[in-house]
Write a structure and sequence with these properties.
Length: 126
């Protein structure tokens, strides 16, 4: 019965923390990019991921994410939550390697890739 309680507590925390990091990360990244006039796409992605991981770690350090008995475990789990949230708020498909992997997955099943659909729409407008 204790494992059910632990899993329930974990899910409750994740359902609040991860969306909060996603929303906060989008705002913070926009503020940082605007304040420092960041133009390079790779720099925008890097800033987004770093801020998301830092948010996850800070939440874990302040007791907002208490899953493990040790603080180290909570901090590592917070960093993982930050990575997941950073990927969700940043758009994983924007990264070339991940975009290629997703395109290969589409091609494996004989579907048009998102890039092909976008190109066809652009050609239809022209």
């Amino acid at each position: 019965m204790e494992i059910i309680t632990t899993v329930t507590l974990l899910l409750q925390q994740l359902m609040i923390i991860v969306p909060s990091i996603i929303a906060g990360n989008t705002v913070l990244t926009g503020l940082v990019n605007g304040a420092f006039n960041v133009q390079a796409a790779w720099a925008k992605h890097l800033i987004s991921w770093v801020l998301a991981v830092l948010a996850g770690v800070v939440i874990a350090m302040t007791g907002g994410l208490a899953v493990f008995a040790s603080m180290t475990g909570n901090i590592i789990f917070g960093a993982i939550c930050g990575l997941v949230a950073g990927g969700a708020s940043n758009g994983l498909y924007d990264w070339q390697a991940i975009g290629n992997l997703i395109d290969q997955f589409y091609a494996l099943f004989g579907h048009k890739t998102p890039a092909e659909v976008k190109r066809e729409k652009a050609e239809a407008k022209a």
